[in-house]
Amino acid sequence: MTPDEYCQQRVAARGSSLYYSVLFLPPEQRRAVIALHAFSRELRDAVHEAADPGVARAKLAYWRSELQAAMAGGPQHPVARALAAAGRAGAISEAQFAQMVDGAQMDLDRNRYPDLAALEAYCQHTAGAVQQLCAKILGYTEEVTLEFARTLGVALRLTEIIRDVGRDAQSNRIYLPLEALERFGLTDNDILQRREDERFEQAMAFHIARARLHHERAAALLPRADRRAQRAGLVLGATSRALLEEIAALRGHTLTQSVTLTPLRKLWIAWKTWVKG
Q: For domain 1-109, which architecture applies?
C-alpha cells in the first residue's frame, strides 16, 4: 500500500465528506489535501485513543520527530511520507505543520473548556490550521482567503462538536463550554448522564446558532477571485452546514443518537457546490 492509499483509506474512504469534497480536484492537490487531513486524524487519535496521558504525549513527540524527518526527506510513517509531498505542493514549512501538533497538545491538556473564547482558540489551532494549509495547497490570490479558511475550519469543528456531544461524553470529554452550560442551568454531569431535556435543547440551539454564524462569516470572507480555487473548502462547508441543519431539526439531540448525511446527499451537495463555484 502506498502512502497515498493509506491516507485515502484513513480519512477519505468512498462515502465520506472529505471524499466528495476532493472528488473533482487535480490528482496532486487531492493527494495533498487528503494527506493533511490524515495527519490531523493521526494526531487526534494519538490523544483520544490513548488511555495513558504519558503514552499520548509520547505519540505526539513521535509525530514531531516525523515532521522533522519529513522536511529532511526521511520519514518512516506513510502519513508523514505523504505529508512531505503535501508540503512541497503548498510550500508549507515544518513550523506550519507543527501548529497542528500544538492543537492536538491542547486536546491532551484539557477535556473541558471554560468559555467560548477558549473553545474557539482550540478550534483555530486544530481545524482552522488544517483548512489554512489546505487553502495554500488549493491556491489563492488574496490574503483574506486564508482568513476564510481559518474561519471555515472553526465552523467545521464546531459542527463536529455539536454532532459528537454524546460520543465525546463517553470518553469524559465535553467541548461545550462550561460557562455556556451554566447559562442554561446545565452542568457537565448533565451531559455525562445524557439528560436531553429542555435545558439541553436550549443550549444546543445556542451552539447551533454560533456554528451557523461561523459558516456565514467564512462564506462572506472568501473573495470572488478565489472562489473557484477554493471549491473543495466550499464543498466541505456546504456539507457541514447541511449536517448542522439536520441536527437543528432534531432539536440538537445528539447525546443519544448519531446524525449523518447519506453518501448520495453528500454527492449532490458536492456536485452542486462545485458547479456553482
A: Orthogonal Bundle (1.10)
